[in-house]
Design goal:
Length: 205
């Protein structure tokens, strides 16, 4: 990685950590530059405006998730373990993020939020691949179309699990998603699959 790419990576990584911890309201290029020990001019060389920087930080975040999920889907793990690993990874990221800060991003940068929703919808095929593999190995029921299941799964995530939903109903994201996962898997997996799920302890963190 050359110096320019390394600097951009550092800016995006630190920017993501800053926004996650403090929210957009308190995010400034000045504070980011201070945290990185570099000048604002250096940051603006790579990202000409704060809006572009925030958009690229979100791209960095979604790219990180995409790479991790691809790695899991293509691994040699059994499909149930893949599903557990993905949900644990997603829930770990959610546990570090305040819904107030997510709403702030959604309200102030609707175009960026739309990119996040499009990204989430794009994960459908990855889940379909895992569900179909689980079905082929006897972990999931044979009499359901896993492509449809994956589509419904991600549509519920996109349409229902909005930040306002959790705050309006006073629900903890982790507990709510754990319940959703359990409801889906109880209806989709066979006894063999459910047994493996329990062994992997999904939702127990």
């Amino acid at each position: 990685m050359d110096n320019n790419n390394q600097s951009k990576e550092q800016i995006l990584e630190q920017g993501f950590e800053t926004i996650t911890q403090n929210g957009l309201r308190f995010f400034t290029v000045e504070s980011l530059a201070a945290n990185l020990g570099m000048s604002k001019k250096t940051i603006y060389k790579f990202f000409p405006s704060k809006e572009i920087l925030i958009e690229k930080i979100v791209d960095y975040f979604t790219g990180m998730i995409e790479r991790k999920l691809k790695q899991i889907v293509e691994s040699d793990m059994d499909p149930v373990e893949k599903y557990v690993k993905i949900m644990d990874f997603i829930m770990d990221k959610i546990s570090r993020t305040s819904m107030d800060k997510v709403i702030e991003l959604k309200n102030r940068y609707p175009i960026v939020w739309k990119k996040i929703e499009t990204f989430r919808q794009g994960l459908t095929q990855g889940f379909a691949t895992i569900f179909i593999e689980a079905q082929e190995k006897g972990f999931a029921r044979k009499n359901i179309d896993m492509n449809i299941v994956a589509t419904i799964y991600m549509d519920i995530v996109n349409s229902t699990f909005q930040p306002e939903f959790f705050l309006r109903n006073n629900l903890a994201p982790i507990d709510t998603i754990n319940l959703f996962v359990n409801l889906i898997t109880e209806g989709m997996f066979t006894e063999k699959g459910i047994s493996v799920m329990k062994q992997k302890n999904i939702g127990k963190k």
